[in-house]
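Listing S7. Sequence submitted for prediction.
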Amino acid sequence: MDGGVRISNTHVTRPALWPLATGEMIRWAHAEHPSLIHLFKPKGFGDLASRWLRRSTPVIVDMDDWEGNGGWNDTGLYSPLQRRVFDWQERTWPALASALTVASRELERRAIDLGAPPERVHYVPNGLTQTRIAALTPDPVAVAEFQTRRLPGGGPSILLYTRFVEFDPTIIADLLAGVRARVPGTRLVIAGGSAGGKAEPKLLARARKLGCDDAIIQIGWIDPGQLGFIAGACDVAVHPFDDSRLNRAKSPVKLLELMATGIPAVTTDVGEAPAFVENGTSGLVAPPGDVGALVAAVVGCLENPNLRIRFGQAARERVAREFSWDRLVDRVVRAYVSGLASG
């Protein structure tokens, strides 16, 4: 059980044994007699099982990323066969599904372009539970301990909370160098890391060339419960996005988490980011690829403590008001009602 939800996993996990895994899911569904099926991601075993089950049970399909060609298929993570299957799965579901939930406006347009009736497409951005929002509140004692242990000597700190998948890592070095030219002594705190470990060397090499590599503090992967006090120990967060199809389609939970900590966030005008951060009200939004604009936004926050406080409070209130699952669940319910009505 997880949050009152019963979790059942297939015994078979190997892709080569997909008929067995698909069969497990079909048998489980037949035994449970669900009123509807909500398929999370139009790919993999769940996709195949749902195609069979849709003959007797309404299927609502969730699209939270651009999975096929032009999106995750282009990242080099999959074999040619997997790419062909995933692209076919994503392209064919919108016209078949009883209803769809989509995490971004980009995916809303894509679903309609692929044949989904507009009235069956329901925009449901990512959100946070009230428990998660509360857990992200910085604890003053933990903040002070972290500052003493990892950020000795004081000075402004920029937080980068990332997996390094949304942007070219060298832009972060350019940003840091630009900020330090105007606010000497500024440090960059990196919480998280790349999956393959390739992004960090690129960032450090660029920073070394610019003479600011010694101002980078790498925390590494963190426990979700640590983000609140790490953010509380820093002055401003940056969460940039390159203007790519993949980024335009995603609904960035990490940005919501940063906002929920109360740290002022600087992001870029790509996809859902400006729908989360209201420029000039709950943070700052710069044009994508414009390092100068990012630098100016970060410096503006560092030089104005009152602005940081105002942005941080507004961001936290916005997440609790607009992006808590207590509020977003109504959108999911409407999708279920739509799916049941369309059969």
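Caption to Listing S7: primary sequence and predicted structure tokens for the chain studied. The mean pLDDT is 96. Residues 15-127+325-342 form a domain with the Rossmann fold fold (CATH 3.40.50.2000).
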